[in-house]
Amino acid sequence: MPETKPRLSQLDPVWQRICEEANQVVRDEPLLGGVMHNNLLHHATMERALAFRFALKLSSAEISEQILREIAEEAYETSPWLGEAARADIVAVHERDPACHRFLQPLMYFKGYQAIQAYRVGHWLWTTGRGDMALFVQMRISEMFGVDIHPAAQIGKGIMIDHAHSIVIGETAVVGDNVSMLHSVTLGGTGKVDGDRHPKIGDGVLIGAGAKVLGNIHIGANSRIAAGSVVLIDVPACKTVAGIPAKIVGEAGCPQPALSMDHRFRE
């Protein structure tokens, strides 16, 4: 007998799980059946669904859904890393956010996840020389999600931005892998200085709500920045900083703060 090839979704456990969850939503809440089919179940791959969501959310009277969808589909087709990062971000949100119980929740309902995926398409545009379109995407992300990330910023994968309201990430900022941040975080500059002027955030860093990290400074891997802090100097790896201006107040308290999401100080 000829060998039976597995379906594409069976080779992609993240996407398979999202489709299974979407089917369960249809059974539990039939009024959302059309939403689940249009956004998820109608698409053969997660990349196609992401492109659809990107276009649906960012289209306007200025630029059509069809144009934006074609842009996003080209991005996902030519840069497989975008799909890998999208999956890593889904897993990150599911593991770290106690309000996230299913893989489909970030893709469908969480603006932090949706904003970071839209930023990634904008970054692809920026790096392929389409700066004006990238800036247009940045503008629409800000208008739709309240998140302002310059398309030139470099952001790794496994990112969790919880709540995401009023996030600002500047042009020359660099964010490593497996970073978690809460709402109202700013990775900004300190004035009108041009050039490399924004923070470099190491892998595994946890940034609390309302924290401001300013200037071309380095935040060491697996460190913690307390909520409401203003960080103006380099932070070594595996430390906790707090205050205005922020100072080292202790060790990070665990090997990977961004994964544990533990914001408590310890004596």
3D structure, described in words:
With 267 residues, the chain is of the alpha/beta class. The protein is built from nine helices and 15 strands. A six-stranded mixed beta sheet has the order 3-6-9-12-14-15. It has a five-stranded parallel beta sheet with strand order 1-4-7-10-13. Helix 1 packs antiparallel against helix 2 (33-41), helix 4 (65-78) crosses helix 5 (80-96) and helix 5 packs antiparallel against helix 7 (111-127). The protein starts with 12 loop residues before the first helix and ends in a 7-residue tail after the last helix.
Computed structural class: alpha/beta
| Strands side by side in the biggest sheet | 3-6-9-12-14-15
What is the β-strand count? 15
Silhouette: globular
Measured by DSSP, the beta-strand proportion falls in 5-15%
Task: Please write the string of helix (H) and strand (E) elements.
Answer: HHHHHHHHEEEEEEEEEEEEEEEH
How far the N terminus sits from the C terminus, by CA atoms, comes to 67 Å
Computed CA radius of gyration, to the nearest angstrom: 19 Å
Helix content: 40-55%
Low-confidence stretches: 1-6
Number of helices: 9
Mean pLDDT equals 94
The biggest sheet, with number of strands, parallel, antiparallel or mixed sense and barrel status, is: 6 strands, mixed
Outline of the structure:
The chain is an alpha/beta fold and 267 residues long.
